[in-house]
Design goal:
The protein is α+β, with helices and mostly antiparallel strands. The protein is built from five helices and two strands. α1 (about 15-25) crosses α5.
Length: about 120
Amino acid sequence: MAGKKKVQFCSYISEEVEELANYLAKREEVTRVVFVRRAIRTFMQGNHHIDARLRITERTNPDYIVRGKLYPVYLEEEQKEQLKGVAEEQKCTLSQVFFQVMIDYCIRLVSEDDSGITIHGD
């Protein structure tokens, strides 16, 4: 992995996903960069589905998911390009793809080991 060009990337995600990702990265004993790298790698092996709720941009829509947390990370340039390709393919934004990547990876890790996770309903 050494020598691959890294680029700074920031995207908004929900506070809940940020908290869960931070917890899972700590639990998995990896840095944020490694966590995101693994999340992207896992996502790229799947079907690239972007949930309809993540595509909603009108904040007045009751199904809109608030993305109030800026999530900065360094990505490998190649991975950022892969995510851009998915955004074009799925006709959505890079931020929507990244949010889906983070949600999917968190779900995967929680489904494999839910220790320390408490889910609260609204």
